[in-house]
What does this fold into?
Amino acid sequence: MDALEKLEILTDAAKYDVSCASSGSSRGGKSAAERGASMGSAMKSGICHSFSGDGRCISLLKILASNCCIYDCKYCVNRRSNDVPRTTFTAREIAELTINFYKRNYIEGLFLSSGVVKNPDYTMELICEAVRLLREEYGFAGYIHAKTVPGADPLLIKKLGLMADRISVNIEMPSEESLKTFAPDKSRNSILKPMGQISGGIKENRHELALYKSAPKFAPAGHSTQMIIGASPETDLRIIKLTEGLYKKYNLKRVYFSAYVPVGNHPALPHTKPPLMREHRLYQADWLLRFYGFRADEILTEENPNFNELLDPKCTWAINHPELFPVEVNRADYNMLLRVPGVGVRSAKRIVSARRYGRLDFANLKKMGVVLKRARYFLVCGGKYLDGITVDQKNIERNMLADAAMSPQNAKKNTAQLSMFDEQFVLPTKNEVMKSITGEL
Amino acid sequence: MECITDNNRNGIIYTYDGTFDGFLCCVFRAYSTKRFPGKIARYGTVTPSIFDEVANIQTGRAEAERVYEGIRKNISGKALYYAYLAFMTEREGMEDDIFEFLRLGFKYGGRVLSMMNNDAVLSVVKLKEKAYREADKLFGFLRFEELEGGIYYAELEPDNNILELLAKHFEDRFPNRRFIICDKGRGLSAVYDARELTLLRGMPENLPPRSESEAEYRRLWKVFYDAVEIKERHNPKLRRSMMPKKYHKYITELRRFPD
It folds into this structure.
């Protein structure tokens, strides 16, 4: 099998893993003489190098070391019982591809995962060897994200963590029952144990680094996980509660959601289109958890355990809490401003810093990037709504739904295709919105 | 050409050579003569009315250097960076906003950066973001080709004058590699010889041919690019908004090659 064919098979097999972030590490900035033969750097904020035909960011060379898998996870395209061509890279082939793509600035680094060849340890050793070659022999200082294989020896995880920027283990399914149904070879414990080890390793390492600057770094870009949504019956509330728990307990950098693409054969699996709008709403909620100070049980409740297709989670929350609005721009504290639909992290910061130098009006807000289309129902400047309109709290929802219905995306009755212009209000920037949709940051 | 009217009728107009150093020399002149300009513009881009006085400012390295230091010391390094990036947008009228931004900075110090309710400050902040946003995109979209002899060559046509910023990023990334990056629109080249980075006017001539392995890796990359798409999520509109068409010409995976 030639290199082209191998690359095609092992890319095709890897593409359903949505994580593609190259952020969180910072390296470089030394002179050529100091750095010797090394090549590469990592930017704190990550870099997108390209976008594939589905609009998702390509930052890393995302491939499997092998798609020969001994497991039979029902939702996975690489399951043992699936009839697809199989192949395995050598560690050298992986390193050569990475370095040559990197030199041409095609990529920011490598994202290496793998099917389980022979057994978990054997697979982890293959991954470790490819990463070792890159770091030691090729002097590669670019970004590396490697997956750990559930059930592998903790020593191998440790070894990998000392070479890669980010290591991660996928939680796969939003609940233990679903994991049992669809991934009979994996157990909750085999996933959470390495996740706990990585989280503990990172914590311990940050402590060491505080004491000794030259201590070796363990997964400096942190760790992440992903779950497949829409394959199993969990509610959105259950998913964001799990997400919140994962952030708290394991200090994850990101939890990724991957809309299930029908590639499985289990009778309980759906054969519908990937639920892109649901995935999008989950990312919006994820943003609210991480940057906007929301708790999961504020975003959704037992009575309303699923997201509204038409309104984003922040608007929904605001409409359900009329007692907190309207908010006075010139007085409200930062945390309250963040909770106003149409105000993002960036504009909230701008408001807080600008109002020290004078009172703000709606014209100022507009220039600062507040989306008045939504914010006008919830904000007052000097006690007045925009254009002196009076807002009846009861009508807000109807008005906002009307706005949403008139937006191009719904006019076309095509909610599954995301519009790129309409969603910026809840998230920091348009760029980041797209990164969130594409599962990247 | 534009006509200068009302708002700076009684002011002096400073004209300069279009470089950042030249602009800083205008700032130098304003403060050393205590005459603040009603407008700052490139040579030959303004038609003064009969009431206007025009001063052509010569660019001097020493004066510019003093303003650099002055901004760093009396405002902040961050403010200098903002002014520099905002300048690189080459947006019409940006000189006046940057001048006003610096004037406020010399008066209030580093906190000028948080005075977002001032139009000039907000404009500088936004321009800076605009220039940086493009640079950030091009850190990713720029593509090197390997030429014989181990030289890496890239071309692009950015909206903003960000060649220096780009070249510095790649100098940091590939400290031991010789590369040339060309801004074809502006006719500028950044040349790095694995020791020093130089910015030049003009395009390189007599480049060596592409290396032997170049076509092979280009094909491999194209295979990867096509295979990584999830076809069930095909969304060309989203791709176009993330990777605008104007950049496609220089992006390997979107270009057509004869072989």
Notes: Residues 2-133 of chain B form one domain. Residues 1-9 of chain B have pLDDT under 50 and may be disordered. The two ends of chain B are 46 Å apart (CA to CA). Residues 222 and 253 of chain B are 5 Å apart (CA to CA).
